[in-house]
Amino acid sequence: MASDTPATTVPATMSAMLLIGHGDIDRLVYRDDVPTPQPGPGEVLVRVTATAKNNTDRKAREGLYPVKKGQVTSFAMGGEPTLTFPRIQGADIAGRVAAVGEGVDPSRIDERGLLDFNLYADARCDINLTPDYYGHGADGGFAEYVAVPADQFHAVPNSELADAELAAMGMCSYQTAYHMMTSAGVKAGERILVTGASGGVGTALIQLCRIVGAIPYAVSQPEKAAALEALGAEAVIDRGDQQSFVERVLDATGGAPIDAVMDLVGGEMTDLFIDTMIHDMKARATYPRLSIAGASGGNMSEILWTRIYLYQVQIFGVSHGTREEAEQLVEWIRAGRLKPVLHAAFRLSDLHAAERYFVSRGSNFLGKIVIVPDSQWEAHGAPFALAPVSSTLEPRS
User: How far apart are CA 295 and CA 69, in angstroms?
Assistant: First the structure.
């Protein structure tokens, strides 16, 4: 349940995990003497209660966002690199307003909410051409406090949601998932193949497909099938045995082609995903669509371009979404139409352990890990501490 903890005096310093350079987890340094940020005009200071961990945290730390071969860097879509050191990572932030800047209504103090994680280049609501985010181009939530734009910290008072659960529905996963769907024009009744279905974006895609009336088919491991089907997957296709993969997808759909693929895997499976869409073009009513927002299976895919243009496969690259999409997601969260899939919580001081667990996670892993400041642990983290393997297959709700 959401806490009713009253506002407290903001301290001059705070605990935070600082990323001091590209590399392994030893580049993450925990300190308790970091100056507490001050909210500027139009900003709120958020007392962080939980921040979801995303794969982008690791990839940015390791410099795995090259746009040219051979680079070890993070992305700089607006030109100059914005990831500078030291940096506090953590994008999907839940918490409470502790102070307000000039021009912000003081009545917002104590408001519980969720951050739209984007660093928008302008005020446009329908497009986001130079994506960047809190935890990358500006300090994020792996700390006790963070200053963010007041209009991007959305109130979510729902008492049925704990703060850790709210963070697990953060925009980095859910907005990415929704933008994958809007980019590809996913419609009611369409068959959608969701790869990497057990992660944060994958579980969001399954739920969002059901909200818009589409039919999600999940690609994951057999032992996660029950939980993914409970979340809304029509069927779960084992990602193993690539030689029979397309046949097994078509068995699940009754022989009908997949209308669109939401791909978080890439690598050598990309061609197979395309095969699920083009095997019977006469049976299609729309162009095949491939929406890509990840490459967990490899950053290089070998594809015959003749397959793309002759079959008229439309490809959409997706990283972040828009203000409009963020606002829609918040409406659905407030209305209870989206459910958290929270795997476990870790203390902020144990972020190294959380990183190791995230990379080596086994077949029991489903959903999101959240990081909770040590000062907030008993109220917001302890109830979701890592559970025994036998109890982690069901999503928390």
Answer: 15
CB atoms within 10 A of CB 117: 31
153 shares its domain with 20: yes
How far, in Å, CA of 77 to CA of 64, rounded? 14
Burial of 200 from C-beta contacts in 10 A (0-12 / 13-18 / 19+): buried
> Do 238 and 157 share a structural domain?
no
- pTM assigned to the model: 0.91
Place of tokens 């690539």: 242
**What's the domain range around 21?**
13-169+340-391
Contact 165, 340 (CB under 8 A): yes
Q: Can you give the CATH number for the domain in which 237 is found?
A: 3.40.50.720
Confidence band, pLDDT 50/70/90 cuts, at residue 360: confident
63 contacts 74 by C-beta, under 8 angstroms: yes
One domain, residues 110 and 206: no
Beta-carbon contacts of residue 277 (< 8 Å; ≥ 6 apart): 257, 258, 259, 260, 261, 284, 288, 289, 290, 311, 313
Model confidence pLDDT, tens digit, residues 69-117: 655 556 666 667 789 999 999 999 999 999 999 999 999 999 999 999 9
Of 190, 174, 178, 172, give the one whose Cα is nearest residue 289: 190
Of the candidates 265, 259, 262, 258, the one whose C-alpha atom is nearest the C-alpha of residue 240 is 265
